[in-house]
Each structure stands twice: as C-alpha cells, then as structure tokens.
Design brief:
The protein has 191 residues and is an alpha+beta fold.
Length: 191
C-alpha cells in the first residue's frame, strides 16, 4: 500500500475546498494520547489538518508565539484525516488504513512508550509520512496556487521542537517555513 498517496488523496480535496482569504499557514497536526484507542491499542496517533488566518491570530507579530503556537491559537476548519474514534462524526477508514500500513512496516506494540522514549511506537512513522505529504503539496505547487507561498507546519501539542523543526523544514523545501523556524529557534522574540 502507498500510505502517503492515500494521505495525499484525503488531504488534497479538503485543502482545495477551503476559501479563506487571509490564510498565513496550514497546520498538519499529529498527536498521540493515552485516551486515543483503536482495537486493543492505546496512545494511538491522530492526524488532522487546518488553516490559520491573520484575523484568527489578531494579526500577531511575525515572530510571536501567538502566531506560531498553532494548537493554542487560531486553527480554522480542522478536519480529521486519521481519527482513532475520538471524534465519531469524522470517523472513517483512516485509522484502519493506518494500522494496515503499520503492519506492512512490521511495527508492533503501537502506542507503547517506554521510559526514555521521545514518542510512542508508530508516531514517528506517521509524522514522517505526513511531512512527506506536505512536501509533495509544496513541490507540486498546490499550496502556492491556492494560498500563495505559505508554510505547512507539521506539529503536535507538546511541541517537541527538535522534531517539529525537522518535519516542518522537510515539508517546506522552498523555504516557506523560514519565518516559523526563526520564531521557534529564537524562542519567539516578539512577545
């Protein structure tokens, strides 16, 4: 199975349906939580997409946390692509497809997070696939054509900055995320 193609085919029509005028970034949110369950597994990852608007962040300064701490600011039109059943109104075959892909990868103990682990089993593989999909959207010009040269921020709630930086930088090969990366690396100097 080409899991990244599956994600791309799920994400693309959602992005194409958005009509907001003042979008400055897209959010590709990957998150695991002990409460997220699928079959006998816990700590399962979800993946959702959304956009951020200037109005939603109150036109915050370019290097401010208010602009770039996406889970805490202004996500608009959040759509669940992979949902472990915590949002039944959005539930479909995404989580089943994710676990089929995990099986193909040979991953076991999905969601297990031992002492000293940075993230649970399966999380890194999913966030990497999501980053690759974002990169494809950027390199094919989908995002630039729809919104202009804006970044896709690949992130989670706990903001593992080293991983978020790596995945976001990878997702934006044309430098679209430079302002975000600068804000993060300089620890939001415009507070």
């Amino acid at each position: 199975m080409d899991f990244e193609a599956y994600l791309y085919d799920r994400v693309l029509p959602v992005i194409q349906s958005w009509n907001a005028e003042d979008v400055y970034a897209l959010s590709f949110f990957v998150y695991s939580n002990e409460a997220y369950k699928y079959d006998e597994y816990t700590n399962v990852s979800l993946f959702s997409i959304a956009y951020c608007t200037e109005e939603g962040c109150n036109h915050a300064p370019p290097l401010s946390e208010e602009r770039w701490n996406l889970p805490c600011t202004n996500l608009q039109q959040e759509t669940f692509i992979i949902d472990p059943g915590n949002h039944p109104e959005n539930h479909d075959d995404g989580i089943k497809t994710l676990f089929k892909w995990y099986k193909e990868l040979g991953l076991k103990n999905i969601g297990y997070e031992g002492p000293g682990d940075a993230y649970p089993v399966g999380y890194y593989e999913l966030i990497r696939a999501v980053s690759n999909v974002a990169q494809r959207l950027q390199t094919e010009g989908v995002i630039k054509e729809k919104f202009g040269p804006i970044p896709i921020i690949v992130h989670d709630l706990e903001i593992l900055w080293y991983l978020i930086e790596e995945m976001t930088e990878h997702a934006n090969p044309g430098g679209e995320a430079e302002l975000f990366l600068r804000a993060v690396r300089e620890e939001f100097p415009e507070e």
